[in-house]
Specification:
The complex is a heterodimer of chains A (70) and B (250).
Chain A lengths: L3 E3 L9 H5 L5 E3 L11 E3 L10 H5 L5 E5 L3
Antiparallel strand pairs in A: 1-4, 2-3
Chain B lengths: L1 E4 L17 H15 L6 E5 L7 H4 L3 E4 L5 H11 L4 E7 H7 L1 H10 L4 E6 L29 H4 L5 H6 L6 E6 L3 H19 L5 E6 L3 H4 L3 H12 L6 E5 L7
Parallel strand pairs in B: 2-3, 2-4, 4-5, 5-7, 6-7
Antiparallel strand pairs in B: 6-8
Helix pairs in contact in B: 1-8, 4-5
The chains are: A alpha+beta (70), B alpha/beta (250).
The complex binds thiamine diphosphate (TPP), iron/sulfur cluster (3 copies) and magnesium ion.
The site of one iron/sulfur cluster has 13 residues of chain A, from helix 2.
Chain lengths: 70, 250
């Protein structure tokens, strides 16, 4: 299971999550959604700290965050 | 895997109609998180405005009313007085609250109604296509100030927090913004404070959120918070103007 889960149907491609991720591991996907936007996508999940800054900044509540249990 | 973040319970599943990058969505979510955390979902009643957030009732999984333009604080007064056990909040833009609804907000605040007023100040009439608001900045170009707002004919930006803080009754008056992750968490705390005060029966609270309207500002969503930081925050100073209960210290 992923740490970073996006509901592409909610994503409007605003780019705020991409700009705010401290590790710069988010980017626009190459494909288009049914809304006609390039959704945000994870490029390097191993680096993700599950800080949830991206998810909390998303105006459309499109991202869910999970963390590995120790 | 442990869940760290997902949609709060008090939000509906309906996708927002807001433009890409609009702050309304984040502020809705923060309010829903506060409703969840205070466990008041079953007794919360929201009052939506006229403006882009006119459909706020669709996005929260709590009872809602939708008031005529500017009248949310009057409608909220009625609801709270007949159902004192409910938690009542208003959600209004700057055209709604600081223009057509000036009388209603001032008098609800002055009466000290035990409600929570959330004020979304994006310095423009978003819904109707970007007309000048009482909160538009000096020199700001809008549909109705194509040469920039001129104080000689249109006056100066209205500071609602500062005005309301001069009144005797309000218990909590604060101005916040969500321009970066740290301020976003402060906004959440301010909303939590405001709803907590109401829950404890302390009285009227007012939370102004300095917000973006990327569409009518003609800015990319990722540039809008920078514009807000550089242009709006020098005029609309963040801070708490009144906190009679010391809620921020507790
Ligand atoms: C009585 C009345 N007058 C005018 C309007 C037109 N109108 C609709 S929304 C709006 C202003 C909305 O601006 P604001 O409150 O700042 O909300 P925003 O869309 O920016 O969130 C106006 C003037 C109306 N619907 N009803
Ligand atoms: S959870 Fe944090 S580290 Fe992971 S993608 Fe989001 S902002 Fe980046
Ligand atoms: S912040 Fe949300 S809507 Fe904007 S690009 Fe990221 S996931 Fe999509
Ligand atoms: S017009 Fe402005 S305030 Fe309205 S939804 Fe679009 S960006 Fe948000
Ligand atoms: Mg507005």
């Amino acid at each position: 299971m992923s740490k970073w889960v996006i509901n592409e149907n909610l994503c409007k491609g605003c780019g705020i999550c991409i700009a705010r991720c401290p590790l710069k591991i988010l980017a626009f996907a190459d494909h288009l959604t049914s809304k006609g936007v390039h959704p945000a996508a994870m490029t390097d999940e191993a680096k993700c700290t599950s800080c949830a800054i991206c998810a909390r900044s998303c105006p459309d509540v499109a991202i869910e965050i999970y963390k590995e249990e120790k | 895997m442990k869940k760290i973040f997902s949609r709060p319970e008090s939000m509906s599943k309906k996708p927002f109609h807001y433009c890409p990058g609009c702050d309304h969505g984040v502020i809705h979510r923060l309010i829903a998180e506060v409703i969840d955390e205070l466990e008041i979902k079953n007794r919360t009643i929201g009052v939506a405005p006229v403006g882009c957030s006119v459909f706020a009732y669709d996005y929260f999984d709590v009872d809602f009313n939708q008031a005529p333009h500017g009248r949310a604080p009057a409608v909220a007064t009625g609801i709270k007085r007949v159902r004192p056990d409910s938690i009542v909040f208003t959600y209004q833009g700057d055209g709604d609250l600081a223009a057509i609804g000036t009388a209603e907000i001032i008098h609800a605040a002055n009466r000290g109604e035990n409600i929570t007023a959330v004020f979304i100040n994006n310095a423009i009439y978003g819904m109707t296509g970007g007309q000048m608001a009482p909160t538009s900045l000096i020199g700001m170009k809008t549909q109705t100030s194509p040469y920039g707002r001129d104080a000689a004919t249109a006056g100066h930006p209205i500071h609602m927090c500062e005005m309301i803080a001069t009144l005797e009754s309000p218990v909590y008056v604060t101005r916040v913004t969500i321009n970066n992750p740290a301020n976003l968490m402060k906004t959440k705390k301010a909303l939590l404070n405001a709803f907590t005060l109401q829950k404890e029966g302390k009285g009227f609270s007012f939370v102004e959120v300095v917000s973006t309207c990327p569409t009518n500002w003609g800015k990319k969503p990722t540039d809008a918070h920078k514009w807000l930081t550089e242009n709006m925050l020098p005029v609309f100073k963040l801070g708490t103007f009144k906190d009679t209960q010391g809620v921020e210290k507790s």
